[in-house]
Amino acid sequence: MGYQVGPAPDAPLASSDDDRGPRPVVEPVWPRFAVTLDEERIDPDVQKVVRRLVRHGYEAYLVGGCVRDLLLGGKPKDFDVATSARPEQVRELFRNSRVIGRRFRLVHVLFHAGKVIEVATFRRNPNDDLDETDAAKSPGHDGAQLLIRSDNVFGEAHEDATRRDFTINALFYDVEACQILDWVGGLEDVRGRMVNTIGEPEVRFREDPVRILRALKFAGRLDLGIHPDVYDSIVTCRDALELAARPRVAEEVLRLLRGGGARRTMFLAWETGVLDVLMPELAALLYDSFASESPSSPGHRVFRLLEFIDRRTLELGSRDDTVLWTLLLLEPLKEATEGARDRSQAVSEFLDPLLERLAIPRRFADGMRRILSVLPRILSGKAGRFARTEIFELALEVAEADLYARGLSTDAIKALRSAPREAAPRETGGRASAAKDEPARAAASTGRGHRASSHGRSRPTPRH
Ligand code: ATP
Ligand code: MG
Hints:
Bound molecules: adenosine-5'-triphosphate, magnesium ion
Number of domains: 2
Low-confidence stretches: 9-20, 132-144, 422-464
Shape: globular
């Protein structure tokens, strides 16, 4: 555990049952808890941002994933700030900032080396103040369903906490006071290492089915348990994922592959039946394989491939997105193309409907096709002219993962990886030297890798 908790000086006192007489009107007191966090792990720039906002009379806290990760003893990959200041007011305080987003505006405060700190104004859940009749009329809602289609109403700090998905993601950290603000029981769930929704799990999953994937991701990546009611609701609500915006689903699948807990997360996805909704092809292959229980079955190789992804991620940072998609689908792809006369047509027949359904961007799809066409050559130990193509490094990684999953030596890949470097022409040589540290990403002009920098990031779906 990365912190110690003590009562905060102004923490509310528990009321006792034997209180006599009429209860006094009690002003709501913030549920504050003093914690000792390792300040070293909090980015000094984010501290500056929070302090400047506070100095100008606004409320400002560290929020979301960074607080969770600090409490769990990990290193946050980025820091988010929530504040009572409106976007224009934040913008006025930081010259080096810009307002982004059209529907919901956030401020990006820019620092050196591409570092971005995201500052969001407190928001609330638009479902909170609607009764059923209102909900049916509201443009932000899908009458019969709870699905939230827009989420852009300003609110107060406690409302911003309760609109969030999981209790562990709803903790606010007051940098000045070294206190956690917890309106949702998140500290208890951090202590119990438990993924728990804020409010009724079924309601929260129906509001936004992508939360189902997020629950699995946090459980897998952070090695947490899932509260039994939440687990049951994942099973009950999994079909709702079909209602979610497909690019958000695709992005969340990538995120769960990127974080170092891909194997555990995909196992949970399979176990809960979520994989049947997302990728029935892959789920079916797993059912068939595990029925036979052979350790060399394609199903076992799927989990070995995921294990390879996790190992590489822990060593070198997030892998290239095209490599991730290819490895996830490699075994079903092999099965679908086995013995096919026209391999590339068989690849297309398998991939096209799947890519369409998952809304995987074309650039990844093209990259996957190219990797798959080079793969047999690489596996036979030859590189030839492919060594000079931009797809080469990505294909090497896929080939290496494939050999690893089959329990074979990966020496041939190591040889190929070093051999063409000297022979490569000038521009490829440049790429090759960058590739030393992060081979897959350096050559990735097909599908951009997830940025591994601890602060800079791209957020294709800035819903939150
Ligand atoms: P990661 O470490 O993967 O970035 P994170 O918790 O920071 O995890 P983000 O996707 O960056 O996740 O979102 C930041 C915060 O926004 C979350 O911690 C959570 O409080 C809130 N949030 C994100 N997605 C949702 C959602 N679908 N519904 C409700 N709240 C969400
Ligand atoms: Mg985050």
